[in-house]
Specification:
Layout lengths: L2 H40 L1 H37 L3 H27 L2 H6 L4 H14 L3 H16 L3 H24 L9 H26 L14 H34 L2 H37 L3 H28 L1 H6 L9 H17 L1 H16 L4 H25 L3 H28 L7
Helix pairs in contact: 1-2, 1-7, 1-10, 1-11, 2-3, 2-5, 2-6, 2-9, 2-10, 3-6, 3-9, 5-8, 6-8, 7-8, 9-10, 9-15, 9-16, 10-11, 10-13, 10-14, 11-13, 11-14, 13-16, 14-16, 15-16
Subcellular location: Cell inner membrane
Membrane topology: Multi-pass membrane protein
Keywords: Antiport, Cell membrane, Ion transport, Membrane, Transmembrane, Transmembrane helix, Transport
């Protein structure tokens, strides 16, 4: 196979695998966007509370998702050599690890108001955030189990079902939000608590549907038989790979959580604008993330065959696709900022103009880091494909926290750039991560054709 043919082959294979995953991630994000948009129409205070509480939930969720992300390369590698027993063992123990993690993190979320107050947040917004999390906390276990099943299916390249279940969850979320947030069809008007309850219902329903599909379509794996029996060897394997992934996720997401905290110091208008701009930037990120997941699966398959040439070609193909996505997203953020921001607020909202004014600046900053944000999440996916997670964790902590958070604080508050400075600090942290992670992957996989 020529180099040109190889690139076309891997680009096509990546695109076919990634498209349903991208659609699934976008639909999943749309569930969060639905909460933000509907609560923004309900009140700016409710939106700020959801942003604050939702940020903490996402931090917890993304750490716990490390076990689900670990399943993807392990199952893909096992399936490539037709080891069905290992596929079952890894997936079951990924579910075990997720459940144990979920049980540990529910109490801090249920009683979170004191944490928000300690972080300097407005008392009213902190109270609303706790109201939101007191219900949403119970969604952490079903949401993590959904991630386990999605990773298992993605590793087996059964991505269409992931897409359609997530789209169905989005439709359900919109309907339940409409009913519970605003009190339609005779239901009580629950505001921010209604949005939390809707998310809980949707996650439980998603898990049930995926479990039924797997039990009927993939009975050879017997995932749900004797699920209570421990498999300490497989649990250790998942944990060794999953904890570094979870901590890497924590380092990245806590960079954005820290930026949310800093924006909260500036007041409810900058915080609301930050939340909306971050949601918009997350749309492009979900495309990069879906591509990263696809690259993890494809690289895991090549890794199990010790095919270094394919490992590098897959990475180059993924980087070319993510560059196209980044350019498109940056253009939209710069050309249509008011239209993007306006979706999240009622036309008669008194603070609408003030939020949009701040948000336009933040979207311009978001446009600057689209490329580097895509490259850093791709690089993490590449390294997970070769089951390299510990050094990337160290790189992530250094890049996101030591560099990124410090830069955000310095630019935003020491030299007085405020919200723009906070976002430029994010860009600096992401850029350092992208360079170091890509350099590591290239160092590991670089070899001549004679060596492969």
């Amino acid at each position: 196979m020529s180099k040109a043919t190889s690139y076309r082959h891997h680009t096509r294979a990546l695109a076919l695998l990634a498209l349903p995953l991208v659609g699934s991630h976008l639909a999943q994000l749309a569930i969060t966007l639905t909460d933000a948009a509907m609560l923004g129409w309900y009140s700016v205070e409710a939106l700020a509370g959801e942003i604050l509480g939702g940020t903490l939930f996402y931090v917890v969720f993304i750490v716990g998702s490390g076990f689900a992300f670990a399943i993807m390369p392990l199952v893909a590698a096992a399936a490539e050599i037709d080891d069905q027993t290992q596929v079952r063992r890894i997936t079951r123990m990924g579910a075990w690890a997720s459940i144990l993690f979920g049980l540990a993190v529910i109490p801090p979320m249920v009683w979170s108001e004191s944490l928000f107050l300690a972080l300097g947040q407005d008392a009213r917004i902190a109270a609303l955030a706790q109201d939101y999390l007191a219900i949403l906390a119970w969604a952490v276990m079903p949401s993590l189990l959904v991630m386990v099943l999605k990773s298992y299916l993605a590793a087996l390249e059964r991505t269409q079902v992931i897409l359609w279940v997530t789209v169905a969850a989005l439709v359900l979320n919109i309907f339940v939000n409409y009913v519970l947030v605003f009190g339609n069809f005779g239901f009580p008007e629950m505001g921010i608590r209604g949005a939390a309850l809707a998310s809980l219902i949707v996650n439980v329903a998603s898990f049930v549907v995926l479990a039924i599909y797997i039990a009927r379509v993939l009975p050879e794996h017997s995932l749900f038989q004797r699920l209570w029996r421990p498999d300490w060897e497989a649990l250790g394997q998942v944990s060794r790979l999953g904890w570094p992934i979870g901590l890497t996720n924590l380092a990245e997401v806590s960079l954005f959580a820290a930026s949310t905290t800093m924006m909260g110091w500036l007041g409810k208008i900058p915080l609301a604008a930050h939340g909306i701009a971050l949601q918009a930037a997350s749309v492009a990120f979900m495309i990069h993330l879906g591509l990263s997941n696809a690259a993890t699966v494809r690289i895991s398959q090549a890794y199990s065959r010790a095919d270094r040439i394919s490992m590098r070609t897959i990475a180059k193909s993924a980087m070319a696709i993510t560059a196209l996505v980044a350019v498109t997203a940056s253009t939209l953020f710069i050309v249509f900022p008011e239209a993007i921001l306006g979706v999240f607020m009622h036309p008669n909202e008194p603070d609408r103009a003030a939020v949009i004014t701040v948000g336009v600046v933040l979207l311009a900053a978001a446009a600057l880091f689209q490329m580097i944000d895509g490259l850093q999440v791709l690089a993490l996916g590449f390294l997970r494909g070769i089951q390299d997670t510990k050094v990337p964790m160290v790189i992530a902590v250094f890049s996101y926290w030591i560099i990124g958070v410090s830069a955000s604080y310095y630019l935003g508050f020491v030299i007085g750039m405020e919200g723009l400075g906070v976002w430029l600090g994010l860009a600096i942290g992401l850029a350092v991560a992208a360079v170091l992670l890509l350099a590591r992957y290239w160092q590991i996989t670089t070899s001549s054709e004679q060596d492969t």
